[in-house]
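Why does residue order matter? Because the sequence determines the fold. Keep that principle in mind as you read this record.
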Amino acid sequence: MIKSDTVLLKTCFADGMVLQTIVRGKSGGAEVKSETADGFVKSISTLKPGSADERITFGHVLIDGPLALVWTPYKFYFNGQFSQLRRQLLSPGPVQGWLEDTVSD
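Structure:
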């Protein structure tokens, strides 16, 4: 992400990969917002290299045969300034070489 290299970024995602963000809705409850990998890659393509820096710490990795879950806390910096501390749940799938099938934060 930090390089804004969309060609490299696309190599991380399985075909049909979905990104989901859990947000607080107008009623105060949790809502899920979904985005395609293509939409995410397009948004990264508009950024200057070095402006978006997601610093991931790999927390827990659980693997059971073809099923895996990865819990990754991360700090996000934009233009060198700390922006947010979040967590992601990654669900890589083995079908296309353990590429990301689902990313939720």
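The first strand starts at residue 13 and ends at 24.
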